[in-house]
Structure to design on (548 residues):
Protein backbone atom coordinates (compact mmCIF):
# COMPACT_ATOMS: atom_id res chain seq x y z
CA UNK A 1 0.00 0.00 0.00
CA UNK A 2 1.45 3.30 -1.01
CA UNK A 3 1.54 6.11 1.47
CA UNK A 4 0.22 9.41 0.33
CA UNK A 5 2.18 12.55 0.97
CA UNK A 6 1.25 14.51 4.04
CA UNK A 7 -0.58 17.66 3.12
CA UNK A 8 1.46 20.72 4.01
CA UNK A 9 0.19 22.59 6.97
CA UNK A 10 -2.24 19.89 7.88
CA UNK A 11 -0.59 18.20 10.79
CA UNK A 12 -3.67 16.30 11.72
CA UNK A 13 -4.12 14.85 8.28
CA UNK A 14 -0.53 13.82 7.91
CA UNK A 15 -0.62 12.09 11.27
CA UNK A 16 -3.81 10.31 10.36
CA UNK A 17 -1.94 8.86 7.43
CA UNK A 18 0.98 7.77 9.55
CA UNK A 19 -1.15 6.11 12.21
CA UNK A 20 -4.28 4.79 10.52
CA UNK A 21 -6.90 3.59 12.95
CA UNK A 22 -9.92 1.36 12.47
CA UNK A 23 -13.18 3.08 11.65
CA UNK A 24 -15.47 4.01 14.52
CA UNK A 25 -17.90 1.46 15.83
CA UNK A 26 -21.07 1.70 17.83
CA UNK A 27 -21.27 0.16 21.26
CA UNK A 28 -22.34 -3.47 20.87
CA UNK A 29 -26.03 -3.97 20.30
CA UNK A 30 -27.84 -3.93 23.61
CA UNK A 31 -24.89 -2.75 25.66
CA UNK A 32 -25.51 0.89 24.93
CA UNK A 33 -28.95 0.65 26.43
CA UNK A 34 -27.80 -1.37 29.43
CA UNK A 35 -24.95 1.02 30.22
CA UNK A 36 -27.14 4.09 29.90
CA UNK A 37 -29.88 2.70 32.12
CA UNK A 38 -27.42 1.72 34.83
CA UNK A 39 -25.66 5.05 34.68
CA UNK A 40 -28.97 6.88 34.91
CA UNK A 41 -29.84 4.80 37.97
CA UNK A 42 -26.52 5.77 39.55
CA UNK A 43 -27.06 9.45 38.83
CA UNK A 44 -30.60 9.46 40.14
CA UNK A 45 -29.56 7.63 43.30
CA UNK A 46 -26.84 10.22 43.89
CA UNK A 47 -29.13 13.23 43.88
CA UNK A 48 -29.46 15.21 47.09
CA UNK A 49 -33.10 14.29 47.51
CA UNK A 50 -32.53 10.57 47.05
CA UNK A 51 -33.17 8.32 50.00
CA UNK A 52 -30.08 6.20 49.45
CA UNK A 53 -27.33 8.47 48.33
CA UNK A 54 -24.08 7.14 46.98
CA UNK A 55 -21.12 8.98 48.31
CA UNK A 56 -17.91 8.81 46.45
CA UNK A 57 -16.49 5.54 47.61
CA UNK A 58 -12.87 5.19 48.54
CA UNK A 59 -10.67 3.50 46.08
CA UNK A 60 -10.11 -0.07 47.09
CA UNK A 61 -8.25 -2.82 45.40
CA UNK A 62 -11.12 -5.11 44.69
CA UNK A 63 -11.23 -7.47 41.80
CA UNK A 64 -14.22 -6.61 39.71
CA UNK A 65 -15.41 -8.96 37.06
CA UNK A 66 -16.25 -6.12 34.76
CA UNK A 67 -12.74 -4.79 34.67
CA UNK A 68 -10.71 -7.90 34.35
CA UNK A 69 -8.25 -5.65 36.03
CA UNK A 70 -8.16 -4.65 39.54
CA UNK A 71 -9.46 -2.93 42.31
CA UNK A 72 -8.29 -2.88 45.65
CA UNK A 73 -9.02 -3.16 49.19
CA UNK A 74 -5.82 -2.97 50.76
CA UNK A 75 -4.88 -0.71 53.46
CA UNK A 76 -1.61 0.89 53.98
CA UNK A 77 0.15 2.61 56.74
CA UNK A 78 1.94 2.02 59.90
CA UNK A 79 5.46 0.86 60.19
CA UNK A 80 7.52 -0.78 57.54
CA UNK A 81 8.17 -3.69 59.79
CA UNK A 82 4.60 -4.66 60.34
CA UNK A 83 2.21 -3.59 62.98
CA UNK A 84 3.40 -5.46 65.98
CA UNK A 85 3.52 -3.39 69.11
CA UNK A 86 5.81 -0.53 68.45
CA UNK A 87 6.28 1.69 71.46
CA UNK A 88 4.70 5.08 71.41
CA UNK A 89 7.18 7.70 70.34
CA UNK A 90 7.78 9.26 73.69
CA UNK A 91 7.79 6.02 75.61
CA UNK A 92 4.70 6.81 77.62
CA UNK A 93 1.93 4.28 77.63
CA UNK A 94 -1.16 6.17 76.54
CA UNK A 95 -4.41 5.38 78.20
CA UNK A 96 -6.36 3.77 75.41
CA UNK A 97 -7.21 6.87 73.47
CA UNK A 98 -10.90 6.74 74.36
CA UNK A 99 -10.87 10.16 75.96
CA UNK A 100 -9.30 11.87 72.98
CA UNK A 101 -10.94 14.21 70.53
CA UNK A 102 -10.66 13.37 66.84
CA UNK A 103 -8.06 16.10 66.38
CA UNK A 104 -6.03 14.80 69.35
CA UNK A 105 -6.16 11.24 68.05
CA UNK A 106 -5.03 12.33 64.59
CA UNK A 107 -2.25 14.36 66.23
CA UNK A 108 -1.04 11.25 68.01
CA UNK A 109 -1.31 9.24 64.80
CA UNK A 110 0.78 11.94 63.12
CA UNK A 111 3.42 11.72 65.86
CA UNK A 112 3.57 7.95 65.56
CA UNK A 113 3.84 8.11 61.78
CA UNK A 114 6.52 10.78 61.89
CA UNK A 115 8.71 8.51 64.01
CA UNK A 116 8.41 5.49 61.73
CA UNK A 117 11.58 4.59 59.83
CA UNK A 118 11.91 6.21 56.42
CA UNK A 119 12.63 3.61 53.77
CA UNK A 120 15.32 4.04 51.15
CA UNK A 121 13.43 3.56 47.92
CA UNK A 122 14.62 3.01 44.36
CA UNK A 123 12.42 3.77 41.36
CA UNK A 124 12.31 0.16 40.20
CA UNK A 125 11.00 -1.15 43.52
CA UNK A 126 7.47 -2.00 44.61
CA UNK A 127 5.33 -1.25 47.59
CA UNK A 128 3.86 -4.39 49.14
CA UNK A 129 0.76 -4.34 51.32
CA UNK A 130 -1.04 -7.30 52.82
CA UNK A 131 -4.37 -7.09 54.53
CA UNK A 132 -7.44 -9.03 55.50
CA UNK A 133 -10.62 -7.59 54.22
CA UNK A 134 -14.32 -8.12 53.90
CA UNK A 135 -16.42 -5.91 51.68
CA UNK A 136 -19.97 -6.61 50.66
CA UNK A 137 -21.04 -6.22 47.08
CA UNK A 138 -23.59 -3.69 46.01
CA UNK A 139 -23.58 -2.08 49.44
CA UNK A 140 -24.68 -5.39 50.93
CA UNK A 141 -23.50 -6.27 54.42
CA UNK A 142 -19.82 -7.01 54.96
CA UNK A 143 -19.05 -10.75 54.91
CA UNK A 144 -18.38 -12.15 58.37
CA UNK A 145 -15.04 -13.67 57.40
CA UNK A 146 -12.33 -11.61 55.75
CA UNK A 147 -9.90 -12.97 53.18
CA UNK A 148 -6.26 -12.20 52.62
CA UNK A 149 -5.09 -9.78 49.94
CA UNK A 150 -1.58 -8.97 48.82
CA UNK A 151 -0.82 -6.06 46.54
CA UNK A 152 2.36 -4.93 44.84
CA UNK A 153 2.55 -1.54 43.06
CA UNK A 154 5.45 0.32 41.50
CA UNK A 155 6.79 3.03 43.81
CA UNK A 156 7.45 5.33 40.88
CA UNK A 157 5.78 6.44 37.69
CA UNK A 158 7.42 3.68 35.66
CA UNK A 159 4.89 1.82 33.56
CA UNK A 160 5.58 -1.57 35.09
CA UNK A 161 2.75 -3.88 36.07
CA UNK A 162 1.91 -4.47 39.70
CA UNK A 163 0.36 -7.62 41.09
CA UNK A 164 -2.66 -8.54 43.16
CA UNK A 165 -3.08 -11.90 44.88
CA UNK A 166 -6.47 -12.48 46.36
CA UNK A 167 -8.22 -15.75 47.11
CA UNK A 168 -5.28 -17.51 45.52
CA UNK A 169 -5.84 -15.71 42.26
CA UNK A 170 -2.96 -13.76 40.76
CA UNK A 171 -3.92 -10.70 38.72
CA UNK A 172 -1.34 -8.50 37.03
CA UNK A 173 -2.12 -4.84 37.64
CA UNK A 174 -1.45 -3.17 34.34
CA UNK A 175 -1.86 0.47 33.78
CA UNK A 176 -3.29 1.23 30.39
CA UNK A 177 0.05 1.89 28.82
CA UNK A 178 1.84 -0.89 30.66
CA UNK A 179 0.43 -3.32 28.16
CA UNK A 180 2.57 -1.87 25.45
CA UNK A 181 5.48 -4.04 24.47
CA UNK A 182 8.33 -3.07 22.21
CA UNK A 183 10.49 -5.33 20.12
CA UNK A 184 14.13 -5.35 21.09
CA UNK A 185 16.62 -7.80 19.68
CA UNK A 186 13.85 -9.83 18.21
CA UNK A 187 11.94 -10.21 21.47
CA UNK A 188 8.89 -8.43 22.78
CA UNK A 189 9.66 -6.81 26.10
CA UNK A 190 7.52 -4.59 28.30
CA UNK A 191 8.24 -0.94 27.80
CA UNK A 192 9.60 0.98 30.74
CA UNK A 193 8.29 4.33 29.73
CA UNK A 194 7.05 6.72 32.41
CA UNK A 195 3.35 6.69 33.11
CA UNK A 196 2.67 10.38 33.62
CA UNK A 197 -0.89 9.66 34.60
CA UNK A 198 0.39 7.84 37.68
CA UNK A 199 1.15 9.73 40.78
CA UNK A 200 -1.72 12.15 41.24
CA UNK A 201 -3.79 12.60 44.35
CA UNK A 202 -6.04 9.81 43.15
CA UNK A 203 -3.27 7.46 42.12
CA UNK A 204 -0.44 7.99 44.57
CA UNK A 205 2.99 6.46 44.28
CA UNK A 206 5.77 6.68 46.85
CA UNK A 207 7.49 9.22 44.61
CA UNK A 208 4.43 11.39 44.16
CA UNK A 209 3.72 11.31 47.89
CA UNK A 210 7.30 12.44 48.53
CA UNK A 211 6.59 15.55 46.49
CA UNK A 212 3.60 16.66 48.59
CA UNK A 213 3.95 19.52 51.06
CA UNK A 214 4.76 18.47 54.62
CA UNK A 215 2.97 21.49 56.05
CA UNK A 216 -0.54 20.26 56.92
CA UNK A 217 -2.23 23.54 56.02
CA UNK A 218 -0.52 23.72 52.65
CA UNK A 219 -1.35 20.07 52.06
CA UNK A 220 -5.02 20.47 52.91
CA UNK A 221 -5.19 23.60 50.77
CA UNK A 222 -3.66 21.64 47.89
CA UNK A 223 -6.21 18.86 48.31
CA UNK A 224 -9.15 21.27 48.49
CA UNK A 225 -7.84 23.08 45.41
CA UNK A 226 -7.14 20.00 43.31
CA UNK A 227 -10.41 18.36 44.25
CA UNK A 228 -12.51 21.49 43.95
CA UNK A 229 -15.86 20.70 42.44
CA UNK A 230 -15.43 16.97 42.92
CA UNK A 231 -17.31 14.69 45.26
CA UNK A 232 -20.31 15.69 47.28
CA UNK A 233 -18.87 18.21 49.65
CA UNK A 234 -15.38 19.63 50.09
CA UNK A 235 -14.99 17.97 53.49
CA UNK A 236 -16.15 14.57 52.30
CA UNK A 237 -13.93 14.74 49.23
CA UNK A 238 -10.91 15.79 51.29
CA UNK A 239 -11.41 13.06 53.90
CA UNK A 240 -11.85 10.41 51.22
CA UNK A 241 -8.85 11.67 49.28
CA UNK A 242 -6.63 11.58 52.37
CA UNK A 243 -7.88 8.07 53.12
CA UNK A 244 -6.93 7.06 49.60
CA UNK A 245 -3.47 8.55 49.99
CA UNK A 246 -2.93 6.70 53.27
CA UNK A 247 -4.46 3.40 52.27
CA UNK A 248 -2.96 2.35 49.01
CA UNK A 249 0.58 3.49 49.27
CA UNK A 250 3.42 3.80 51.69
CA UNK A 251 3.75 7.48 52.42
CA UNK A 252 7.07 8.81 53.71
CA UNK A 253 6.85 9.47 57.48
CA UNK A 254 6.67 13.25 57.18
CA UNK A 255 3.90 12.97 54.61
CA UNK A 256 1.88 10.50 56.69
CA UNK A 257 2.13 12.90 59.59
CA UNK A 258 1.04 15.84 57.45
CA UNK A 259 -1.91 13.86 56.06
CA UNK A 260 -3.16 13.01 59.55
CA UNK A 261 -2.77 16.61 60.69
CA UNK A 262 -4.56 17.81 57.56
CA UNK A 263 -7.43 15.41 58.23
CA UNK A 264 -7.69 16.86 61.73
CA UNK A 265 -8.49 20.23 60.19
CA UNK A 266 -11.48 18.98 58.18
CA UNK A 267 -14.69 20.09 59.89
CA UNK A 268 -16.93 17.20 60.86
CA UNK A 269 -14.35 14.53 61.66
CA UNK A 270 -15.43 12.79 64.85
CA UNK A 271 -14.03 10.24 67.32
CA UNK A 272 -15.22 6.64 67.69
CA UNK A 273 -13.92 5.41 71.07
CA UNK A 274 -14.09 1.72 70.20
CA UNK A 275 -13.94 0.26 66.72
CA UNK A 276 -13.06 -3.27 65.60
CA UNK A 277 -11.10 -4.07 62.46
CA UNK A 278 -11.61 -7.02 60.11
CA UNK A 279 -9.66 -9.47 62.27
CA UNK A 280 -11.19 -8.45 65.56
CA UNK A 281 -8.59 -6.00 66.80
CA UNK A 282 -10.11 -3.22 68.88
CA UNK A 283 -8.94 0.31 68.35
CA UNK A 284 -9.98 3.92 68.45
CA UNK A 285 -11.17 5.54 65.24
CA UNK A 286 -11.87 8.78 63.49
CA UNK A 287 -14.95 8.96 61.37
CA UNK A 288 -16.49 11.12 58.69
CA UNK A 289 -20.12 10.81 57.72
CA UNK A 290 -21.85 12.36 54.74
CA UNK A 291 -25.36 11.56 53.64
CA UNK A 292 -25.44 8.34 55.60
CA UNK A 293 -22.12 7.02 54.33
CA UNK A 294 -19.63 6.70 57.16
CA UNK A 295 -15.92 6.01 56.77
CA UNK A 296 -13.80 5.07 59.77
CA UNK A 297 -10.03 4.90 60.10
CA UNK A 298 -9.09 2.69 63.05
CA UNK A 299 -5.91 3.12 65.07
CA UNK A 300 -4.15 1.01 67.66
CA UNK A 301 -5.11 2.44 71.05
CA UNK A 302 -1.55 2.34 72.34
CA UNK A 303 0.70 2.95 69.36
CA UNK A 304 -1.75 5.09 67.34
CA UNK A 305 -0.75 3.28 64.19
CA UNK A 306 -3.40 2.67 61.53
CA UNK A 307 -4.77 -0.86 61.84
CA UNK A 308 -7.81 -0.90 59.60
CA UNK A 309 -11.04 0.62 58.39
CA UNK A 310 -14.78 0.22 58.49
CA UNK A 311 -17.45 1.59 56.16
CA UNK A 312 -21.11 1.95 57.02
CA UNK A 313 -24.09 2.94 54.92
CA UNK A 314 -26.98 4.19 57.03
CA UNK A 315 -25.58 2.37 60.04
CA UNK A 316 -25.12 -0.95 58.26
CA UNK A 317 -21.57 -2.29 58.15
CA UNK A 318 -20.72 -2.71 54.46
CA UNK A 319 -16.97 -3.21 54.62
CA UNK A 320 -14.00 -3.66 56.91
CA UNK A 321 -10.34 -4.40 56.56
CA UNK A 322 -7.24 -4.98 58.64
CA UNK A 323 -3.72 -3.98 57.70
CA UNK A 324 -1.21 -6.79 58.22
CA UNK A 325 2.05 -5.73 56.69
CA UNK A 326 3.62 -3.31 54.31
CA UNK A 327 7.10 -3.06 52.91
CA UNK A 328 9.22 -1.95 49.99
CA UNK A 329 10.42 -4.93 47.93
CA UNK A 330 12.38 -5.38 44.71
CA UNK A 331 9.90 -7.34 42.61
CA UNK A 332 6.16 -7.68 42.22
CA UNK A 333 5.27 -10.94 43.97
CA UNK A 334 8.23 -10.82 46.34
CA UNK A 335 7.51 -11.11 50.05
CA UNK A 336 9.44 -9.02 52.57
CA UNK A 337 12.34 -10.81 54.23
CA UNK A 338 10.64 -10.89 57.59
CA UNK A 339 7.50 -9.72 59.21
CA UNK B 1 -29.09 24.45 23.45
CA UNK B 2 -25.64 23.46 24.60
CA UNK B 3 -25.38 26.20 27.23
CA UNK B 4 -28.61 25.02 28.76
CA UNK B 5 -27.30 21.50 28.78
CA UNK B 6 -24.18 22.82 30.47
CA UNK B 7 -26.10 24.42 33.29
CA UNK B 8 -28.20 21.30 33.75
CA UNK B 9 -25.06 19.16 33.85
CA UNK B 10 -23.56 21.51 36.42
CA UNK B 11 -26.72 21.31 38.47
CA UNK B 12 -26.58 17.51 38.51
CA UNK B 13 -29.66 16.82 36.40
CA UNK B 14 -29.56 13.09 35.56
CA UNK B 15 -31.53 13.61 32.35
CA UNK B 16 -28.88 16.05 31.16
CA UNK B 17 -26.33 13.27 31.62
CA UNK B 18 -28.61 10.97 29.66
CA UNK B 19 -28.43 13.47 26.81
CA UNK B 20 -24.67 13.63 27.15
CA UNK B 21 -24.55 9.86 26.92
CA UNK B 22 -26.72 9.80 23.81
CA UNK B 23 -24.53 12.37 22.11
CA UNK B 24 -21.06 11.34 23.12
CA UNK B 25 -20.92 7.73 24.33
CA UNK B 26 -19.85 6.61 20.88
CA UNK B 27 -17.06 9.20 20.72
CA UNK B 28 -15.81 8.15 24.15
CA UNK B 29 -16.01 4.47 23.21
CA UNK B 30 -13.91 4.91 20.09
CA UNK B 31 -11.39 7.26 21.67
CA UNK B 32 -10.78 4.76 24.48
CA UNK B 33 -10.48 1.91 22.02
CA UNK B 34 -7.85 3.83 20.11
CA UNK B 35 -5.88 4.43 23.28
CA UNK B 36 -6.04 0.81 24.45
CA UNK B 37 -6.66 -1.42 21.45
CA UNK B 38 -9.29 -3.26 23.51
CA UNK B 39 -13.03 -3.04 22.95
CA UNK B 40 -13.91 -4.43 26.42
CA UNK B 41 -11.62 -1.84 28.03
CA UNK B 42 -13.25 0.82 25.88
CA UNK B 43 -16.67 -0.23 27.12
CA UNK B 44 -15.44 -0.07 30.68
CA UNK B 45 -14.05 3.38 29.96
CA UNK B 46 -17.46 4.56 28.75
CA UNK B 47 -19.06 3.71 32.10
CA UNK B 48 -16.19 5.19 34.06
CA UNK B 49 -16.05 8.36 31.96
CA UNK B 50 -19.69 9.14 32.67
CA UNK B 51 -19.35 8.23 36.36
CA UNK B 52 -16.35 10.54 36.56
CA UNK B 53 -18.19 13.24 34.63
CA UNK B 54 -20.98 13.02 37.20
CA UNK B 55 -18.49 13.29 40.04
CA UNK B 56 -16.70 16.22 38.39
CA UNK B 57 -19.80 18.02 37.16
CA UNK B 58 -19.15 20.94 39.51
CA UNK B 59 -16.08 21.77 37.45
CA UNK B 60 -18.01 22.42 34.26
CA UNK B 61 -17.58 26.06 33.40
CA UNK B 62 -20.54 28.31 32.90
CA UNK B 63 -19.79 29.10 29.29
CA UNK B 64 -20.87 28.31 25.83
CA UNK B 65 -19.55 25.53 23.72
CA UNK B 66 -19.80 21.81 23.35
CA UNK B 67 -19.22 19.54 26.33
CA UNK B 68 -17.58 17.02 24.01
CA UNK B 69 -13.99 18.20 24.68
CA UNK B 70 -14.62 18.08 28.43
CA UNK B 71 -15.90 14.52 28.21
CA UNK B 72 -13.11 13.39 25.93
CA UNK B 73 -10.57 14.87 28.32
CA UNK B 74 -12.09 12.82 31.13
CA UNK B 75 -12.08 9.81 28.82
CA UNK B 76 -8.35 10.17 28.18
CA UNK B 77 -7.61 10.30 31.89
CA UNK B 78 -9.95 7.45 32.71
CA UNK B 79 -8.54 5.28 29.95
CA UNK B 80 -4.96 5.95 30.96
CA UNK B 81 -5.91 4.93 34.43
CA UNK B 82 -8.58 2.30 33.98
CA UNK B 83 -7.80 0.14 36.97
CA UNK B 84 -7.44 3.01 39.38
CA UNK B 85 -10.56 4.82 38.35
CA UNK B 86 -12.35 1.52 38.48
CA UNK B 87 -11.58 1.27 42.15
CA UNK B 88 -13.14 4.60 42.91
CA UNK B 89 -16.35 3.63 41.21
CA UNK B 90 -16.24 -0.02 42.10
CA UNK B 91 -19.62 -0.04 43.78
CA UNK B 92 -21.28 1.49 40.73
CA UNK B 93 -19.43 -0.81 38.37
CA UNK B 94 -20.56 -3.87 40.25
CA UNK B 95 -24.13 -2.89 39.58
CA UNK B 96 -23.55 -2.89 35.82
CA UNK B 97 -23.74 -6.35 34.23
CA UNK B 98 -20.36 -7.32 32.74
CA UNK B 99 -20.09 -7.34 28.97
CA UNK B 100 -21.02 -10.51 27.23
CA UNK B 101 -17.90 -12.44 26.32
CA UNK B 102 -18.68 -12.49 22.61
CA UNK B 103 -20.77 -10.26 20.40
CA UNK B 104 -23.99 -11.59 19.03
CA UNK B 105 -22.83 -11.97 15.50
CA UNK B 106 -19.82 -13.79 14.18
CA UNK B 107 -18.97 -11.06 11.68
CA UNK B 108 -19.13 -8.43 14.37
CA UNK B 109 -16.72 -10.51 16.42
CA UNK B 110 -14.38 -10.95 13.47
CA UNK B 111 -14.50 -7.23 12.78
CA UNK B 112 -13.75 -6.41 16.41
CA UNK B 113 -10.80 -8.78 16.48
CA UNK B 114 -9.45 -7.29 13.26
CA UNK B 115 -9.83 -3.79 14.67
CA UNK B 116 -8.09 -4.78 17.88
CA UNK B 117 -5.19 -6.41 16.05
CA UNK B 118 -4.76 -3.37 13.83
CA UNK B 119 -4.99 -0.99 16.75
CA UNK B 120 -2.39 -2.89 18.72
CA UNK B 121 0.01 -2.59 15.82
CA UNK B 122 -0.62 1.15 15.61
CA UNK B 123 -0.10 1.50 19.37
CA UNK B 124 3.12 -0.50 19.17
CA UNK B 125 4.33 1.90 16.49
CA UNK B 126 3.34 4.84 18.67
CA UNK B 127 5.45 3.45 21.48
CA UNK B 128 8.11 5.99 20.46
CA UNK B 129 5.80 8.79 21.47
CA UNK B 130 5.45 10.01 24.99
CA UNK B 131 2.01 9.36 26.48
CA UNK B 132 1.22 13.07 26.39
CA UNK B 133 1.96 13.10 22.68
CA UNK B 134 -0.23 10.05 22.14
CA UNK B 135 -3.08 11.76 24.01
CA UNK B 136 -2.83 14.82 21.78
CA UNK B 137 -2.69 12.59 18.71
CA UNK B 138 -5.80 10.75 19.85
CA UNK B 139 -7.77 13.91 20.60
CA UNK B 140 -6.70 16.07 17.65
CA UNK B 141 -6.28 13.48 14.93
CA UNK B 142 -8.57 10.64 15.85
CA UNK B 143 -11.31 12.54 17.67
CA UNK B 144 -11.02 15.70 15.60
CA UNK B 145 -10.67 18.31 18.37
CA UNK B 146 -8.97 21.57 17.47
CA UNK B 147 -5.91 22.76 19.38
CA UNK B 148 -7.89 24.91 21.77
CA UNK B 149 -10.40 22.23 22.63
CA UNK B 150 -7.68 19.60 23.09
CA UNK B 151 -5.76 21.98 25.32
CA UNK B 152 -8.81 22.49 27.50
CA UNK B 153 -9.58 18.78 27.56
CA UNK B 154 -6.08 17.89 28.71
CA UNK B 155 -5.61 20.91 30.95
CA UNK B 156 -2.48 22.10 29.13
CA UNK B 157 -1.70 25.31 27.23
CA UNK B 158 -2.60 25.46 23.55
CA UNK B 159 1.06 25.85 22.66
CA UNK B 160 1.78 22.57 24.39
CA UNK B 161 -0.78 20.80 22.24
CA UNK B 162 0.76 22.31 19.14
CA UNK B 163 4.29 21.34 20.08
CA UNK B 164 3.30 17.83 21.16
CA UNK B 165 1.57 17.23 17.84
CA UNK B 166 4.52 18.59 15.98
CA UNK B 167 6.90 16.34 17.92
CA UNK B 168 4.63 13.38 17.33
CA UNK B 169 4.65 14.05 13.61
CA UNK B 170 8.42 14.40 13.51
CA UNK B 171 8.99 11.20 15.43
CA UNK B 172 6.62 9.23 13.28
CA UNK B 173 8.20 10.55 10.11
CA UNK B 174 11.60 9.52 11.41
CA UNK B 175 10.19 6.13 12.13
CA UNK B 176 9.11 5.78 8.54
CA UNK B 177 12.35 7.20 7.22
CA UNK B 178 14.15 4.53 9.23
CA UNK B 179 12.24 1.97 7.26
CA UNK B 180 10.62 0.85 10.45
CA UNK B 181 7.30 2.53 9.99
CA UNK B 182 3.89 1.24 9.20
CA UNK B 183 2.95 0.11 5.79
CA UNK B 184 -0.32 1.78 5.72
CA UNK B 185 -3.51 2.71 4.14
CA UNK B 186 -4.20 6.14 2.72
CA UNK B 187 -5.12 8.81 5.24
CA UNK B 188 -8.67 8.97 6.30
CA UNK B 189 -8.84 7.49 9.76
CA UNK B 190 -9.39 10.89 11.29
CA UNK B 191 -12.05 9.78 13.68
CA UNK B 192 -14.66 11.59 11.71
CA UNK B 193 -14.71 9.12 8.86
CA UNK B 194 -17.47 6.60 8.94
CA UNK B 195 -17.41 3.28 7.17
CA UNK B 196 -14.39 1.77 5.51
CA UNK B 197 -14.32 -1.04 8.00
CA UNK B 198 -13.32 -3.59 5.37
CA UNK B 199 -10.04 -1.81 5.02
CA UNK B 200 -9.40 -2.30 8.66
CA UNK B 201 -9.23 -6.01 8.13
CA UNK B 202 -6.10 -5.68 6.03
CA UNK B 203 -2.99 -6.49 7.97
CA UNK B 204 -0.53 -3.74 8.63
CA UNK B 205 3.07 -4.69 8.56
CA UNK B 206 5.22 -3.04 11.09
CA UNK B 207 8.49 -3.54 12.71
CA UNK B 208 10.15 -1.49 15.37
CA UNK B 209 13.85 -1.43 15.88
Amino acid sequence: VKASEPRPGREADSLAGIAPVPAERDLPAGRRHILKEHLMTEFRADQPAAQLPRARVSRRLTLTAAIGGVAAAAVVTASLTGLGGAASPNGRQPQGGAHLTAAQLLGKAADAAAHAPAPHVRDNQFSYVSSEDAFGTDDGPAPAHPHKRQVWLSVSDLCVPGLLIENGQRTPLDDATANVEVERHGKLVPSHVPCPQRGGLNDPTYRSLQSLPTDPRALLHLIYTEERGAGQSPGQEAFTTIGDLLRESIPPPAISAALYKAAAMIPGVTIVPDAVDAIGRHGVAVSFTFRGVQEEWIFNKNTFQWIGERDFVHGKLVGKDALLQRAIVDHAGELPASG
Amino acid sequence: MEHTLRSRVRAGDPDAFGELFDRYARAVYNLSFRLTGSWPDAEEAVSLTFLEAWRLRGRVEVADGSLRPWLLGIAVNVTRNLNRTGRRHQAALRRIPPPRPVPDFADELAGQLDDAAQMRRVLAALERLRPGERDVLALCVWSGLDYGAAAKALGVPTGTVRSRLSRARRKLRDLIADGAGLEREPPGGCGQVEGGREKAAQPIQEEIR
Remarks:
- Chain B touches chain A through 107 residues (CB under 8 Å).
- Residues 183-209 of chain B have pLDDT under 50 and may be disordered.
- Residues 126 and 134 of chain B are 7 Å apart (CA to CA).
